[in-house]
Design brief:
Layout lengths: L5 H5 L5 E4 L16 E4 L2 H6 L3 E3 L6 H6 L5 E4 L7 H9 L3 E4 L14 H18 L9 E3 L2 E3 L3 E5 L3 H12 L3 E5 L5 H6 L4 E2 L18 H17 L2 E4 L14 H5 L6 E4 L16 E4 L2 E4 L9 H19 E2 L2 E2 L6 H6 E4 L2 E2 L2 H7 L1
Parallel strand pairs: 1-2, 3-4, 4-5, 8-9, 8-11, 9-10, 11-12, 12-14
Antiparallel strand pairs: 5-17, 6-7, 13-14, 15-16, 17-18
Bound molecules: nicotinamide-adenine-dinucleotide (NAD).
The site of nicotinamide-adenine-dinucleotide (NAD) has 30 residues, from α5 and α6.
Catalytic activity: NAD(+) + NADPH + H(+)(in) = NADH + NADP(+) + H(+)(out)
GO molecular function: NADP binding; proton-translocating NAD(P)+ transhydrogenase activity
Function: The transhydrogenation between NADH and NADP is coupled to respiration and ATP hydrolysis and functions as a proton pump across the membrane.
Length: 354
Amino acid sequence: MTPAVVPRLARLGASISLEKDAGLGATFADGVYKDVSFSSGVGALVSDADVVLAVQPPAIEAVEAMKAGALLVSFLYGAANPTLVEALRDRKITALAMELIPRISRAQSMDALSSQAALTGYYAPLLGAVNMPRILPMMTTAVGSLRAAKVLVMGLGVAGLSALATAHRLGAITEGYDVRPETAEQAQSLGAKFVDTGVDARGEGGYAREFTADEKNHVRGVLSQHIADADMIITTAAVPGRRAPVLISADQVAAMKPGAVIVDLGAEGGGNCEGTKPGETVRAGPVTIVGPLDVPSALSEHASELYAKNILNLLASIVKNGAIKLDFSDEVIAATAVSHNGEIRNEAVRKAVE
Ligand code: NAD
């Protein structure tokens, strides 16, 4: 929660309690929040609340301390956290999972995956730049010109397009690649060339589907040349609910230019590159592989600003005249509700729990 969003939340009819020092890591000291109360233990904080707003999935003790029937809005990753989901169900908490906000126009202002991915993508070329022994733009000096670096972005969702934009602004020559052909135009509008492999892997709901074995081999051949030519590669490929696809093999890494860098934003989902160590920066033969985790925390002020607004917009859509009115026929509520009134409502999560 940011100080600027507190009054907007209050206008919905809420009185607001914050965990002591909650904003400190995002530059917001307790003193800059107006009209809020503070509580130091999570248990004491949540036990009185009708609505609990959080970033990460709560600890079981926090769920047990919540009022029965309260509303929780947070990232939950229920399928991976069955014990948490059971605790939410048993405590009769209505839990709305931020990672399940549907990708529809009306919900764009609530979509925290997108807002955080935009920041993560922006940051990736900066992480790459400080790990490279070269500069990104062309530079003319008294002793001759330095050539612009080539940056290849693989996976052109929200994060990938944002990465292309930053790399272009920094003066690099940019190329983008994705299995969804409609991303070609989006990459080109950001000044990048599109690497066309001739394979269309559009899946449901605007997401990608997995490749067949033949498709994999063909694409690998086309991409090898582009990988070998790059000074920096940023990978962001993801397939919902699965391990991140591996786009760069150890052989392809070994064939890269000495000093090149790979920033693997797929690290959180296991990595898009063979050799990535999630959370670490490692040398692999001629290249450096950066495997950052939780990038939004490195941009904590703006990450918080966007997340607080995403949550505010979700709440504003369910508060009518100062009261929470949950309409389960509303597409956003139907998609995000993991538990309600002692039941697990989300089918994928229910299957994982049972
Ligand atoms: P994501 O994080 O799920 O995946 C990142 C990218 O990786 C995707 O573009 C995907 O096609 C690509 N990818 C997957 N496997 C790959 C492979 N083997 N090789 C190369 N690329 C691969 O993506 P995202 O940022 O969540 O966006 C997914 C889609 O959802 C996009 O079409 C985006 O425009 C759309 N979207 C819509 C809304 C909305 O309408 N509210 C909001 C956000 C995103």
